Amino acid sequence: MTQKLAFVFPGQGSQKIGMLSELAAEYSLIEQTFSQASSVLDYDLWSLVQTGEQDGINKTEVTQPLLLTASTALWQVWKDLGGDMPALLAGHSLGEWSALVAADVVDFGAAVKLVHLRGRYMQEAVPAGVGGMAAIVGLEDKAVEEICEDVAGDEFVGAVNYNSPGQIVIAGHKSAVDRAATACKSAGAKRALPLPVSAPFHTPLMAPAAERLAKDMDEIEFRSPGTPILHNVGVEPVNSGDEIRRRLVDQITAPVPWVKTIETIADRGIVKAVECGPGKVLSGLNKRITDKINTVNIDSSASLSAALSGGES
Predict the structure, then answer these.
(1) Who's near 229: CB < 8 A, 6+ residues apart?
(2) Which domains does the chain have, with CATH numbers?
(3) What b-and-e string marks burial along 48-74, b requiring 16 or more CB atoms within 10 Å of the CB?
(4) What is the pTM of this model?
(5) What does the pLDDT average to over 215-222?
(6) Annotated catalytic sites, by residue?
(7) Largest CB tally within 10 Å, which of 6, 121, 215, 263?
(8) What residues are paired with 229 via a beta bridge?
(9) Rounded Cα gap, residues 93 and 122, in angstroms
(10) What integer is the mean pLDDT of 264-293?
């Protein structure tokens, strides 16, 4: 275990058609991991992500098991190649489930089943068109929070993803999100961008999804982690499988404090992070949060080789 290394796992938004195809040609573990997930899902996940349509993999109940599987496949390749083991794990929203699998808290097959249900329940919690999300760029967190409170009225809108300084995502009832986005622009935000999702993730509106998933999770064993995980709820490691289960339920309705997560990793003396998943979303966010951590990605042959050798990706 390398005390100055962390692994971070991305959430929704990192998926794209054709991802991991180059690595799959070199490492059979990639397709083997996707095959395991496909047997749980009863459809060919690898074929879908290689030859399907982007709209198909953007459906939440597909996106969630897809990204879990992609991150787990990369984790398996990293271990198989003798990569350094991290001292700490963290995941952005859905990515926390990938961290759980890496830490042997929950079996991969069980996690695939649960995140598939998680995605379905989150989509079904709010009727299509009722909820929305928007990214606000260029305003202080407190200003965004106050605007949301001022314009909410009888509806809900609030800050849900604290992604990096000056970049925050709001969510809630679509009409309230629209009002807040307009007010943020008037207050000086550089951008207020509606996100292409129909469910207001990480808001109290997701309570029905949390209740449904909690019942399913009660049937699955959650073990103490082999590697400490900074959970989205609390931004601290916990050792109890039952406590981890509770935090995962709370996470569905709670904001994602990514800035605090990365600052906490830096405070622990960690100087390098590996983004274990497709794309470079977290690498970009982490760079804007702190210059104390160098985040590298491993979703291509070149970047994987560089990360394994200790170089830049």
Answers:
(1) 88, 89, 90, 91, 96, 99, 100, 103, 105, 237, 244
(2) 2-125+205-308 (3.40.366.10), 131-198 (3.30.70.250)
(3) bbbeeeeeebbebbbbbbbbbbbbbbb
(4) 0.95
(5) 96
(6) 93, 202
(7) 6
(8) 89
(9) 13
(10) 96
